[in-house]
Specification:
mainly alpha, Glutamate--tRNA ligase mitochondrial, about 60 residues, single chain, glutamate-tRNA ligase activity
C-alpha cells in the first residue's frame, strides 16, 4: 500500500460513538487524578495545595 493510499484510508474515528462522561464518572476520574497527584507530591501537588489555600482564605476572609 502506498503512502497516499494509507492517507486516503486513514480515519480519525477510533471509537464507535462519542465518548460520554457522566457527572458521576467525571467526579470519579477527577478524584483519582487528584489522589495520584497527592501521592506523587510533585509540582502539580504543590500547585493544587496553593490553590486550595487561596480558595479557603478567600471564602473565609474576615474583616478586622
Amino acid at each position: 500500500m502506498s503512502m497516499q493510499e494509507m492517507i486516503d484510508k486513514f480515519d480519525m474515528k477510533f471509537t464507535r460513538g462519542n465518548a460520554i462522561v457522566t457527572d458521576g464518572k467525571l467526579s470519579f476520574l477527577q478524584k483519582q487524578h487528584k489522589i495520584a497527584k497527592i501521592e506523587e507530591q510533585g509540582e502539580d501537588f504543590h500547585r493544587m495545595v496553593d490553590e486550595l489555600v487561596q480558595a479557603v482564605k478567600g471564602a473565609y476572609r474576615t474583616e478586622e
